[in-house]
Amino acid sequence: MSEALRTEKLLLSKETIPADKGSIAGIGTLTRNSAIAMAGGLLSQGLKFVVYLYIARAFSSSDFGSVAFANAINAFVYVISQFGFPVFGARSVARSGRVEPQLLLAIACCRAGLAVLGTIAALGFLVLTPGATARDYALVGFFGLSNVPLAGLFDWVFQGLNRQSVSAVLNVIWQFFWLAFTYIGARAWNNIVVVPVALLAAGVIASLAGILWIRLSNVMEPSRLSANGLREQIWKTMSTGHLLGTGTILLNILIWTDTIVVRLQLGDRAVGWYAAGNRVAMAVSMLSNFYMQAAFPLLCGTSVTNLAAFQGHFQRAYNELMLLFLPGSVWGLFYAPAVILFLFKRQEYLAAVPVFRIFQLTLPLVVINLLFGTGILLAFHEDRAYRRILIAAVVVLFVLCPLFARLGGIQGAALATLTAYAVSVVLFHIRGRRLVQPSHWEALALPALGGLAAALLGLLVHAGLFLAIAILVIAYAGMFLSYRRRLLAGSTA
After folding, report:
1. What is the pTM for the complete model shown?
2. pLDDT score recorded for residue 1
3. Rounded to whole angstroms, what are the CA distances from 225 to 101, 103, 233?
4. Distance between CA 396 and CA 389 in Å, rounded?
5. Mean pLDDT of the region 422-449
């Protein structure tokens, strides 16, 4: 997996299928699977965002900042426990069309063990953190341990089998029970520590559902399990997937470092405002991961068999991701204060408006970064190049974020994040352009103009937030109809 595929071999492949046939056959699959994955992702991320809204409203801004800080640390524990194993497992299942019990158990053991080690490392980090309180230790510890039961979630199995609906349902179960347990715990004990404890309990329930679903689905290959075979499979999984795993860790460092820097340099209230400003954009950007879960198997397949079909599928994914995320991002630049007040209901959170606007610019870069990194480099197995580019982006963030935060407060930290993502996107594009030549105008022009037109029309008629949202929804409908007509015209041609 770590070796890059040579372009010459791809061009000379004897298994190449006609470009038109591959493109047309893949359109329905890409659209259907992406729609299912996005719908499930939207619901699960919506539930997750409701959890954060409830915490912000039910507890003080200092408590909310503590949760944001602990959850930022937990993001590193989460990605350490993942270590790219879901992508590795889904790719293996997609290629073989079967689920091997040894691989299933090996990935579960690796994830559970790494989750424990990551939690210990996170608590060790707190020991070195000035001003860490007992509450911080409790929050980080329970957040970290919540990753242990997720080793048995096995949603990646159903992603590899192209059963996106099952994967979506499992994630919705997880987030729903987190919301329910958080609400019950907060009402009963009014202690912020109930938040990670609720996440831990929700993970147990979701994982039990995943295990039961696999047993009832009869997707497991009959096989005899042995301790020696399991040890060999664990070693093979770790050694084969280490490049992808380190790349995944770097990607999450890019996502969460700024929040930790803000907490350490500027305090709990500042990180609460910062989280209020960046959580909307980062939560929305997570939906692109669900889209890529569906698109990735198709991109991987055509990268080996048909470069012309790959170009078509990649451009389609680029167009659709920008159509989904860019109009709302442009619109959000103009309606940031209204959105912040509606979501958080407190005047003090207006301090987050500049951060919110900067992250509306960062949002499309996050999505493009995922598409170009995963959709090009990982699809062509260029894992080393993928890791090198993310290292460069992380170095930029490590250098600029503390400096900009010191000079410009929470706005400076947000600008550092924007810069790091811009560097990553440029490097991914430079590395990938020898494999695919995307049309940026085709992907960006209509969504950007549509979002801008919706925002300006709302301002022209002095629309309140709900009327402005209605105008944006109408603009989205018009853009989707225009895009659909273009697709139908292309298919007919």
Report:
1. 0.73
2. 36
3. 7, 11, 11
4. 11
5. 92
